Predict the structure.
Amino acid sequence: MKCPHCLISFHEDEAVRNLTDDCDFFWTAQYQICPACKKIIVCLKGKSSFGVKKFLVYPKGISRAPLSQDVPDDFSQDYKEACLVINDSPKASAALSRRCLQNIIRGVAGVKKSDLNKEIEELLDTKSLPTRLADSVDAIRVLGNFAAHPIKSTNTGEIVDVEPGEAEWLLDVLEGLFDFYFVQPAELGRKRDQLNKKLADAGKPPIK
Ligand SMILES: [Zn+2]
């Protein structure tokens, strides 16, 4: 299994505690410490003659790859909450993600229009994004059916119905945008600083 905290795979070896019967199930609690991050994973399992139900109790949701420190809090906060609620409410998650997307487009890409649909259009027109990332941003409009649900575009934080897979897709695209706008430039900056230090030590002029 994959640890829902750190996403590292390990051999499943859960301990079981019997709880009790209710009118539907026989309930057990299953738990295991992740060998990698040393955090506990707790599941509640209900068994009956009709089948088995399993709920992840702790952590609350399956985390995605941890976000780099290079992503500023202003932008990462909505994303983190969108990850947290996606299992319980894909609608709420998608609303947070759309708002986050709009903040990035306005605050980082510098595109400001009356609605998200037009902002995506303008962002793509600038041809500043790598093709694959641009295509996935564009797919947000198509997958979210913005034409039929204009409120998604005009009032990004509004809770409205989502298409299957839409909430996950939004998170995937946000991750790609974070990487492009924040992580890659920061990494490149750090490498350049290292190089310039070496050049300086060798008595040579720095690169820009
Ligand atoms: Zn772990």
